[in-house]
Amino acid sequence: MEPRPRSFYVLSAFFGLFVLFLYGPTITIGILSFQGPSGGLTFPMRGVSLHWFADLFQEQAVGDIWGAFRRSFALGLIVMVTTVVISVMAGLAFRKRFAGSGVLFYLAIASLVIPSILISLGVGLIFSQLGLKIHWATSGLGSQLTWTLPFGLLIMFAVFNRFDKSYEEAARDQGATAWQTIRYVVLPIIAPSLLGVALFGFTLSYDEFARTLLTAGSYNTLPLEIFGMTTNVTTPVIYALGTLTTLFSFAIIGSFIATVLIIQRRRARLGSDAGKGV
């Protein structure tokens, strides 16, 4: 076995430092959230306990943590569904060239390169000028869609560029209508990609701060609430909240991955059964 080149160890060390830099703050917050009742926001730890996690479920002197969580969760679900529906419809539409398709595509993804705070300011100003109430479920939804839709569109464009149209032709040869072809052929095939778009939509919305800052109105979403807590909360309860929200995010990602695996296993089983039937 040939010895590994020195560059291998250098690159491995560099990658290790990168991972530490990436996850170190999250791990540090997770550790400090287990401070004892007399613990503070920094090391050294003064005991180990679940005191600050329990404190989260008590009536808070400041903020509305669980109200903010419910708003972020509801907004994330709305953004997720809207992103999936519009992305699929746009992906189907862009399968054929039409007048202005190139301009429309670049306009759709242009918001990715515009500073998020300017998007938030612009949406807020539009609602104000139209006399509409600035609210997390309306103006907040609009500003967040400028962030999630471009990702969903790019994913669906890539999916449909690789999609084998012979499946649709076979369905039409069997007498399927256009809607039946989409429902029973296209959507089941692209289901894992739809879950990817849904995951993008929910997670990008759930932790979005800048585009919600000036469009949430009187009621904060969870990122805004946590930001507000950093200015007036001086106990590790904020670390406990960060740990729980991180675990919640991992749980959401894990559920989506598990769903994709179930779909793939079901496909493999159906394919195996079909092969045996032949």
From TrEMBL:
Gene Ontology CC annotations of this record: plasma membrane
Keyword Transport tagged: yes
Cellular compartments annotated: Cell membrane
Main location per the UniProt record: membrane
Family listed: Belongs to the binding-protein-dependent transport system permease family. CysTW subfamily.
Biological processes per GO annotation: transmembrane transport
Name of protein: Putative spermidine/putrescine transport system permease protein
UniProt membrane topology term: Multi-pass membrane protein
SUPFAM superfamilies per record: MetI-like (SSF161098)
Organism whose genome encodes this protein: Silicimonas algicola
Pfam family, one: BPD_transp_1
